[in-house]
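Feature request, filed as a ticket because there's no other form

It would be nice if the structure record came with a short human-readable summary line next to the tokens. Right now we just get the raw output. Example of a typical job, pasted below so the devs can see what we mean:
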Amino acid sequence: IGYVDTKGNWVIKPKYSRAVPFCENLAAVVEDGVHGYIDKTGKMVIKLQEDCVHNLDFSEGLAAVSFGKERNEVYGYVDRTGTIVIAPKYREARSFQEGLASVSVKGSKEYDFIDKTGKVVFSKVFHRTMGFSEGLVGCGDMDKKVSDFVDAKGNVVFSIPTGDPSGFHEGLLDVNANDEAYFVDKTGKRVLGKTFQEARKFSSGCAKVKEKGKYGYIDLKGAYVVEPCFTMASDFSDGFGCGIDGDGISVVSAKGIVATIKGRRLGAFDIPFFSCGLASFREGETAVVFDGEGKIVFEAKLAGLWMFTKVE
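Raw output as currently delivered:
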């Protein structure tokens, strides 16, 4: 695995057995069995100790890393110098969001939310979470099929009837439960006055929804930007969405359909999504990258292409 720029040129040659997109100007990689983090030149700026098993993305200046043996490792956190700042002792650990991270000492559904010093701020029993967003975090109980949304002090603000919570974006939360989908505000009150078959998070003022078996996009008032007409569609991201139907790939902005790319053959589950103003799909063994105007930027023989991220 390696890295290309927005013109398709190799910036970092393929040499990693594992590599993920850059976060906070560093990328987590594994090279010749060694876990660490590289900068935009490919230099290994943080080399983790030999018994490292997993290293997650940096978030808010810290990254969760695990040490020990596979399936029996313990997690701690390192800073951007590679120094361990929270000692490894957790069976599970997630990235920091809004100053807090969920961890579990026992590796069960009993979690603590800690601050960046490792101090426990509050504890909660749950199975799933997307982490804090806009001041609240959803803690889902898959057995009870309910999720509590709590604030940074652990106070329950409201609950929703699903054990698989999403997160708040642009002041609204998408709820998909009991064969219907809708949006709520930060009090848990339903808004927009509509229900759907499926709903996803808002981004740049738009969200993907499904109605009568087709996908479309709505704005923050619930009005359709594009009526449901796509058989598949991406979430809205970076100012655009991608809808797929018999005509091809339609690029959607907050103003509607911008352009349609016709005559291309996508994989069965290949749904392009935008990042850094670009999206991509695979056509056979070729990765095809296009912009927000539907113009092809480059095509290259690549086994896979994930997403573009900005690196300073």
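Something like this underneath would help us a lot:
The two ends are 21 Å apart (CA to CA).
The first strand starts at residue 3 and ends at 4.
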